[in-house]
Each structure stands twice: as structure tokens, then as C-alpha cells.
Amino acid sequence: MYATYVIWSKHMTKFWRSTEELVGLALQSVLWVVLFGVGMRGMVADVGGSDYMSYILPGIIALSALGGAVGGGMVLLDERLRGITKEYLAAPIPRLSILLGNASSTATKALIQATIMLIVGVLMGARLTVNPLGWLAALLLLALFAIGFSGLALAVAAVSRSIGGYHGMIFLFNLPLLFASNALYPLSVLPGWMRVIVLLNPTTYLIDAVRSLAFGVAPTLPLLLSLVVVLLFAVLGTWLALSLFRRSIRV
Amino acid sequence: MSDMAIEARGLVKRYGDLTAVDGIDLHVEAGAIYAMLGPNGAGKTTTIGMLTTLVQPTAGEARVAGFDVVRQAKQVRSHIGVTFQDIVLDQDLTGRQVLDIHGRLYRQDGELRRKRIVDLVDLVQLGDAIDRIVKTYSGGMKRRLELARGLMTDPSVLFLDEPTQGLDPQNRTSIWSYIRDLNRQSGLTLLLTTHYMEEADALAHQVGIVDRGKLVAQGTPSGLVAQLGADVIRVRGHGDSAHFVEEIKRMPFVERVEFDGDSGNVSVYVDSGSRRLVEIVGAGGGNGYSVEDVTVARPSLGDAFLHHTGRALRD
Ligand SMILES: Nc1ncnc2c1ncn2[C@@H]1O[C@H](COP(=O)(O)OP(=O)(O)O)[C@@H](O)[C@H]1O
Ligand SMILES: [Mg+2]
pTM of this prediction? Predict the structure, then answer.
């Protein structure tokens, strides 16, 4: 749909223009990798036979994808609160393209951030597998995950009444998604009850799969299962965004 | 198809218990400027919302540019331009980008967009500012940019919701002159809402007075005023105003007396203000009412508003 593309390109124009946001993004990425990776590396030599940097990089990448999605949701929220959505609603374009325009720009930003992270991580010593197909598959999974979480962020943005409310809600999702997962520690070291929670978290599956596909860490979960879970997460996020967005424009 | 640019019958919009628009009929001829005049909360924005397909009517029907606003919403959208009551602009884009993206949403090709932007920047006199970030614009410049955006796609009907709200008099009159020129030169049909009677007076061929969701009177600005009487004597004073009103109502040359409870002002419509002034003032003295201030004037749209709604129109 052409209108989707127009809205996407507008958001990307604004994104490239906002130097603060860009510099912030890049710095944030570097900081995460340096603080976590380098700091923890001194303490933990290796996990399951791979160096700690390679081990935690997928988690940090997932986290930064979340950050990108949160920023994308902000754009929708900002346009809603400022009334810019009305310009779209008065134009002869499908309603759906408003959401899709936002979703695609959000996912793009999430992916850009994930990519920066990956590069910084590799520069800092994470070891990629030699198989480019693995990288590709990992990126695809990341894109699906970004879509899922963008959906979540957009759904919240579609109903929030204020920027503060939005961040509060997002915070509720964000932290557990990272910490109640296998991002920083292996599943095997967790107590049983915690493992149940971690296994309910789609981030766990993403991270496990990306680890094995891109960094050659032995998977602890079946790869196919991980793929299905991440796919379901993407579908769920999209569906949630769609239904809440529909509700928000009905007057 | 009739030559009505806007036709509405029995438009109603309810929000729960609240009836925002309570059965409005509108007929706006192609090429006319129509002003909906009414106080805040009268239902003007909601009416525009229904006519521009943003708000789903609870009852009634409307056609804009010949298309039904519910069943042919997409056709309506491609034939209209809208500016909203609040300034709705992307602050982080340049004026040119705002116009360009708008044109792209309507699938205008690049050549046409460039040409339209040149013409519109000229019309609303934005000059070099068009390449600056909107954030740096003054209120008046933002309103002008919005007007240009509404015109970008060469609509056949343009809706302006309170186009000069919050502007200083100088910016207001320049917006008025663009609107007038547009209408004269291209025969564009305009429906605007306002709570400034001067604005309705200065621009509109037809004025609809709206109050509490209803269209209570309609006509040309001069027609609405002419119904009232030749002159109006405005009296301000204190004391037993009810008695004073009774007293002057009995005078044979008095056509109508209106009392605004909020301000305590009495408006007396007479055949000739200068000839009757002394008698009116005289009726006050010694009857428990003392007159403090008197003015004689031609009735205005504000008086017409008071007449039809029983309340004065205030900003
Ligand atoms: N979305 C809405 N939900 C509930 N009430 C609304 C909504 N929009 C408008 N109203 C109410 O409808 C009435 C008319 O509002 P509006 O059309 O904005 O008036 P105006 O533009 O003449 O000031 C007001 O009482 C307003 O509070
Ligand atoms: Mg309004």
C-alpha cells in the first residue's frame, strides 16, 4: 500500500533528522555492550563452552530491539496526542495503512538498533559463526521479534492517554521480558519456579535461537520450537495492535 | 447531482447521554462561504467531524461534493480539504515537507506537488520560511501553513474549524483576506466555524447560528441583523431592571427589548436610535433603575445571536 510507504518514509525522515535520538541510540548500544559484556567478562569466563560476550550479545540485541520498538510506539502516541492522526483519517487512504506505516517504521528502527548492537558486539570480541545463512536466519528471527514487540508497543500507544502512562505500561513489559529470560544466565542455573516463568517468555526462545544460529552456542531448546514461538509472538503483537488501534479511531 | 456542495439532513451525534449535535440541517451552495457561528461546546467541531467523515453520525445523513459521508467516505475525503481547530502539524518537519507528504498521501505526482507548493507559498506568503522547521514558526505562520495544506490537493470543498482561533488581529485579517481571495478566484466552497461574530460578518455569504447542538437561525449576515430593527440602544445600569424593561416595552416605537441576564445589559430595538434615546433614558430615572451608560448602534450579528439564543456570545 502506497500510503503505508508514505507514512513510513515520513517517520524515517523524522528519525534521521533527530540527531539527538540517533546519537543517543548509538551510545546506548555501545554502553550496554561495554558495561555488560566487558564488566561481566571479568567475572564469568565462559558459559557452556562459549565466551561470555557471545553469550550475552543476543540478549542485549533483543533488549535494544525493545528500545527501538518503544521509540516507534512513541511516534504513534505523539501523533495521536497531537492530533496528527486526524490528517491521515481525513485523507483517502485505508485506515490500516496508518497502523502499518507506524509498525513498519517502528520495526525498522528496532532492526537498525539491533544491527548497530551486533556490529559493536562483534567489534568487542563476540565470535560469529562462519555460516552466513545462520546470520540471516537470526536476523529474520530478530525482525519477527521486533514486529511482535512493536505490535505490543503500538497497542499500548493506541490507548494511552499520556506519554507518562505509555512509558509506565511499557516498563511493565520491558523489564520482565529481559530479566525473566535466559538473556544473562543459562536456563540450567535457574531454580524450577523461575524456569517456568522464563519458559513463558518469548524472549527466551529468540535468544536461544539467535545464540545457536549466529554464535554457535549449543541450543538448549529445540530450534523449531523457538521459531514457532517467535512467529506466534509476532502474530499476537500484530493482532493486539490492530484491535486496539481499531478501537482508538472509532468515534 | 444538485449544485449544493454540502447538504445535511437531521444530523445527530450523541456521546452517551450528551447530545453534541441535535438535528442539524445544512444547505451550502457551491461557491459559497458558510459560517457556523456559536459558542464553545455548541457542536460546531462535531458537525465538521461528521461532514469530513471523521465522526460517525448517530442519525441523519449528509452529502459533501455530491457524495454520502458514510457510504462514500473515501470519495468525500478525496474531494475535501480540512483544517482542524487545534494546530495539527508535525513540528519536526519543514513546511515544504509537510505539504509534500500531504500531497503524497493523496497520490499527487512530484511535478504537481512542486507546482502546488510554489503557488501556495505565494498565496499564504510564507516565503523562505517554507524550508524552515515548523517548530520555529509563529502561531500565525502555522495557521497559514495549515491553510496551504488544506488547499494542497485542490479540494472542491474546504472545511476550516476556527481558522483564526488564538491569532492576533493582524494575522486574523490576513487569513480572512486569503480566504476571500480563494473563494473569489477559484469559486471554492468554504464551510468555517467560528465564535467570533466579526469573522462571520467579514467572510460569510451565509451564517448559521448554532447553540446547544441546534441550528437556531440562518441567513445572510445583513439579513439576520435586519430582522432585529433599525437601531439598537444599549443601556447599562443598575437597580430594578425588570421594571425598567416592562416600562419601555410599553412604548409604541420599541420593537423589541432584550435583557442579557449575565451582564445586566438591556438592548432596546427601535425605529430610530437618535430620536428615541431621550425617552428611553427617561424611563429609567425615578423608577428604581438608574442608567449608567447608553450607546446607540446598528444591530450586529452579536445582537442576532443574543436574540436567537437568549445569551450573549463571548469569546
Ligand atoms: N469525543 C467526544 N466524547 C464526548 N463528548 C464530546 C466528544 N466530542 C465533543 N464532545 C462534547 O460535545 C459537545 C460539542 O462539542 P464541539 O463539537 O467540540 O463544540 P464546539 O466545536 O462548538 O465548541 C461538547 O459538550 C463536548 O464536550
Ligand atoms: Mg470546536
Answer: 0.84
Query: How many Cβ contacts (< 8 angstroms) between chains A and B?
Result: 56
**How many percent of chain B have pLDDT more than 90?**
59
Chain A nearest-CA distance from B107, in A, is: 8
* B276 shares a domain with B179: no
Asked if this assembly's ipTM is beyond 0.85, the reply is: no
Chain A positions touching chain B (beta carbons under 8 Å): 2-3, 6, 10, 13-14, 17-18, 82-84, 86-93, 250-251
Which residue range(s) make up the domain with B271? 229-298
Contact A14 B49 (CB under 8 A): no
Among the ranges given (A179-183, B26-30, B155-159, B292-296), the one the predictor scored with the smallest mean pLDDT: A179-183
What CATH number corresponds to the domain at position B242? 3.30.70.100
Among B197, B219, B241, the domain-final residue is B219
Exposed (0-12), middle (13-18) or buried (19+): which is B170, by Cβ within 10 Å?
exposed
- Residue B12: strand pairing partners: B22, B59
d(CA B15, CA B10): 16
pLDDT, average across residues A46-69: 77
Within 10 angstroms of residue A192's Cβ, the number of other Cβ atoms is 6
Residue-wise pLDDT for A77-105, tens only, equals 888 888 899 999 999 999 889 988 988 88
Instruction: Quote the mean pLDDT of chain B.
Output: 90
Task: Looking at the structure, tell me whether residues B28 and B158 fall in a common domain.
Answer: yes
Mark whether B105 and B212 lie in a shared domain: yes
Ligand 1 lining (C-beta closer than 6 Å): A 251; B 15, 18, 20, 38, 40-46
Do the strands B4-15 and B80-83 form a parallel or antiparallel pair, or are they unpaired? Answer: unpaired
DSSP summary character for residue B94: B
Number of structural domains chain B divides into: 2
Q: Model confidence over B100-138: pLDDT tens digits?
A: 999 999 999 999 999 999 999 999 999 999 999 999 999
Interface test with B, best of A22, A87, A100, A249 (most B CBs within 10 A): A87
- Same domain as B185, residue B110: yes
CB B121 within 8 A of CB B145: no
